[in-house]
Write the structure tokens for this entry.
Amino acid sequence: GNGPISAFVNAMRDEFELSFRLSDFGQNTRSATSKAEAAAYVELVTNDGQSVYGVGIDTSITIAPILAVVSAINKMIAARE
């Protein structure tokens, strides 16, 4: 796809030589606090079929999914070590 999330995913794959695809993405707005926040959820699937999930929360609907991708990539890298 196009957009900032796809661009970020592609950059992370290239920069860190990772093999995965963005399988699922969801986003909700949380307004329990005085400042609304976006909560984003991603599923990354590795080439061997393993699913890795990440969550990101931010006041920006653009930054929240990027944080979710970073969360999932961190889990993916930790699982390899």
User: Anything to note?
Assistant: The two ends are 30 Å apart (CA to CA). The chain has one domain: 4-80. Residues 63-80 form the longest helix (18 residues).
